Amino acid sequence: MINSVYEALVLQIKRALVLHGWTPLDSVCLAYRDYPTAVGTKRALTFLSDFGHNTRHLMLRGHYDSEGTNVIEADCLLIPKTADPGTLEHLVARFATAADAHVQASYAVRLLRVFGVGAS
Fold first, then answer.
1. Which residues share a beta bridge with 32?
2. What is the spatial distance between Cα 39 and Cα 62, in angstroms, rounded to a whole number?
3. 95 SS3 class
4. Which one of 36, 38, 58, 74 counts the least CB within 10 Å of its CB?
5. Which burial class, exposed, middle or buried, applies to 99 when counting CB atoms under 10 A from its CB (0-12, 13-18, 19+)?
6. How far apart are CA 45 and CA 60, in angstroms?
């Protein structure tokens, strides 16, 4: 994929993530989102994978550990490299909504919500 096209897609994806509460990064991770939990603040991370110039999609994926498991691993999705801005925003919204739901259902977040235990 031509660098300028890839960089434009990355910027659009980061902007869409910001609309859903994520903070953009200039690193291997696209963005992060902090969540208050019963064990303190925990951070979710997003990544974008490109599997080469012969592929038609990028993969948006995330990472958030809860009880030794990445609870947002299954929320990954494919983003067409030719996606228009509206499609990109829709796909990122789908990822962000699913990831947030899985983090909210994680043990430490539920414990804080139900019992108010721990620090945020």
1. 23, 45
2. 20
3. helix
4. 74
5. buried
6. 11
Q: What is the DSSP string of 35-81?
A: E--TTS-EEEEEEEEE--TT-SEEEEEEE-EETTEETTGGG-EEEET
Q: What is the pTM of this model?
A: 0.90
The set of residues, in sequence order, having a beta carbon less than 8 Å from that of 18 and lying 6+ positions away, is 24, 31
Structure tokens at 14: 């980061």
| Residues 6 or more apart whose Cβ sits within 8 Å of residue 41 | 34, 35, 120
- Asked if residue 90 lies in contact with residue 19, where contact means CB atoms within 8 angstroms, the answer is no
Q: How far is CA 73 from the centre of its chain?
A: 10
For 15, the enclosing helix (H) or strand (E) is helix 3-18
Q: Indicate the DSSP class of residue 105.
A: T
Residue type, 32: Y
- pLDDT, tens only, 3-38: 788 899 999 999 999 999 999 999 999 999 999 999
